[in-house]
Design brief:
The chain is 10% helix and 25% strand. By secondary structure, it is mainly beta. The strands form five sheets. Strands 1, 2, 3, 5, 6, 8, 10 and 12 form an eight-stranded mixed beta sheet that branches. A four-stranded parallel beta sheet has the order 4-7-9-11, with no helix packed on it. β20 (260-264), α2 (268-275) and β21 form a beta-alpha-beta unit. The two termini are 44 Å apart.
Length: 286
């Protein structure tokens, strides 16, 4: 009887631990990220505040342009008592003066082409709570310093395309799962990538032409690497893949003459590197 009681107690404890931490070595799935976005509303008025052209909606405001001469901009957090939550499409496109911009806490969306072609823009301070960086948002700008907050869950196509001055280690936001294509194409001053555990896909030409990259360790969460993702990364010498990555596009490491790819024995990654004649190191039992 005592043996049965001890057995039942052990089973109860095991079930409790399983409920809390999962079974065996199975990795705990991260909860789905739900982006709030902004509601579709009609513009109620247009105003200018400290040189900023602003559209007023019922529940939020959107900066649509800038008519001032300042080079260091702080986007206003409110306009006539309404929270500024969006930088509008092409709001600062091809501005020839601004050198830095600081976003207030309430910004949710940076629209398409918002800072596209701002050649003198060197620094952008993005706020916690930002969710979306739109298509071409910083394309071909002079940006050198820009940290993506973990709240960003949507990184749209070509958003930092051609930003050759963007330097240091790129932080991939914790909420980001599937960034869009060409996101960091030609960011030749990047020297490292800090991946997040939620990232599941490296998109087409996402890091193509990032010639400052030397070593990349791709996490287990990444299930798919698309076409030419790391092509023409001329300094890339070391890439580590896991058994987690099972789908590969063509030409991922084309134009990376010195790269050695470390892969698990028998994995899809090992099959891919063998098929494409990449220099490979095989790991066993990892």
């Amino acid at each position: 009887m005592k043996k049965i009681s001890r057995f039942l107690a052990a089973m109860t404890a095991c079930l409790m631990l399983t409920a809390l931490f999962g079974c065996g070595n199975k990795e705990k799935e991260l909860p789905e990220v739900v982006l709030r976005g902004l509601p579709e509303e009609a513009v109620t008025s247009n105003i200018v505040v400290s040189g900023f052209a602003i559209d007023i909606y019922r529940t939020y405001a959107c900066v649509t342009g800038y008519e001032g001469d300042a080079v260091d901009l702080g986007i206003p957090p409110f306009a006539v008592g309404v929270a500024v939550k969006k930088i509008g499409d092409s709001a600062f496109k091809d501005n020839e003066k601004i050198e830095s911009v600081v976003l207030p806490e309430g910004i949710v969306i940076i629209g398409k082409n918002a800072f596209d072609g701002c050649k003198k823009l060197k620094k952008a301070v993005l706020n916690d709570g930002l969710e979306t960086v739109g298509d071409y948002a910083f394309r071909n700008s002079g940006i050198e310093e820009c940290v993506l907050p973990d709240s960003v869950g949507q990184l749209c196509k070509y958003c930092f395309y051609g930003c050759a001055g963007l330097k240091g280690t790129l932080h991939i936001p914790a909420n980001l799962s599937e960034p869009d294509k060409y996101a960091f194409y030609g960011c030749s001053s990047l020297t490292g990538i800090e991946f997040s555990p939620r990232l599941s896909r490296i998109s087409e030409k996402m890091f193509s032409g990032c010639s400052g990259l030397v070593s990349v360790d791709i996490p287990k969460s990444v299930k798919r690497i698309d076409e030419y993702a790391f092509s023409n990364c001329a300094s890339l010498s070391s890439v580590t893949l896991t058994e987690g990555t099972v789908k590969f596009g063509e030409g991922i490491f084309v134009g990376c003459p010195s790269v050695t790819v470390t892969v698990p024995d028998g994995s899809e990654a090992a099959k891919y590197t063998a098929k494409n004649n990449y220099k490979t190191e095989i790991t066993v039992g990892k």
